[in-house]
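Support case: nicotinamide-adenine-dinucleotide complex. Customer-provided input:
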Amino acid sequence: MPAFDAARRQFVLATAAGLALSGQAAAQSRTDEGPRTLEGNPMPEPGPEKTAGPVKPGRGCVLTGKVALVTGAARGIGRAIAVELAANGADVVALDIAGPVSSASNAEPATPQELDETVRQIRGFGRKSEAVRADIRDLAALRQVADNIERDYGKIDIVVANAAIQRWKPLLEMEDADWRDVIDNNLNGTANTVRAFAPKMVARHKGRFILLSSMQGKHGTKDGSSYSASKWGILGLMKSAAMELGEHNITVNAILPGLVDTPLTRYEKRLSESIAETGRKPPEKPTPQEAWDIRAPTVPLKVGWLQPDDISPVAVFLASDAANMVTGAEYEVTGGDSAKTV
Ligand SMILES: NC(=O)c1ccc[n+]([C@@H]2O[C@H](COP(=O)([O-])OP(=O)(O)OC[C@H]3O[C@@H](n4cnc5c(N)ncnc54)[C@H](O)[C@@H]3O)[C@@H](O)[C@H]2O)c1
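Agent response - structure generated as follows:
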């Protein structure tokens, strides 16, 4: 892990621990303390699981004692989320196929070594972790993983459904796999993840799902229709699951990253597409710097793209007790690019 990243995560940990300690001394009261009445009638006081509760230092980033599963955790955004959950106190099971997914994937397959590296980084924060090689298209395998986590960790608090592939192919040139495999992997696989783990959470009347959609799930994508459709579908799944699982005290939210530098996007075709998205004609073989320089002026925060650990802090918040009353919501993390989208 680069020294800067390690220092940042240690700072996050130390700050959270320090704040938690000082918070024990501080009064934990509602900010609107005082008589809450309407014409002499008391306002209803929600029970502890029906509110995020009073202000507590660090409550949006403390996950101590929680158990998480992250799919697609071998690299990229999945790894960043897995490691950042651990940096904030959670034990994290890292699941990935760690091998080829489909011919309809433009990215290089992830490797078992990359998955092991995620586990190493999680353990570097003193948390329990293990690598699980499984395919999110296999519902029975996911149910077995859920049973195993319950047996070995005692419970499952947080599930991050992050695994996905991407395909660039015009509709007029598609093979069947270019459509079907992307929908099956991204949308059906994410639904499988929810279906496999939800019963464990229902039984404990508590849980968090965080689904990875994309800004490409909010607008059309030229030559990327199957990916875009899968990510729109995940938003429909997220909102429906939030409606069904709310009565079981389970929240379901989505993170919608803008363009992020990961193996999913780090190849020439994606660089060209990312330039074309700005309305400019891409050069023959754009370099990463050329793509950054063309994109950055078009993004409110003036970056060409984001880094995986720009996305992960939002997952920590959504997994924390501070997000008790957040469900069915879309969190866009885009450097401001999403300001252009309805
Ligand atoms: N990188 C971006 O610009 C970007 C933007 C918006 C949304 N996203 C979303 O973020 C998530 C992570 O993307 P990333 O950029 O880190 O991609 P990535 O390719 O770096 O990582 C994805 C991981 O998912 C795994 N995976 C794929 N299919 C699987 C399966 N069937 N079973 C188990 N594991 C499987 C892969 O092996 C890989 O390790 C995805 O849902 C992606 O759609 C990414």
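The longest strand covers residues 250-257.

Case will auto-close in a few days if no follow-up is received.
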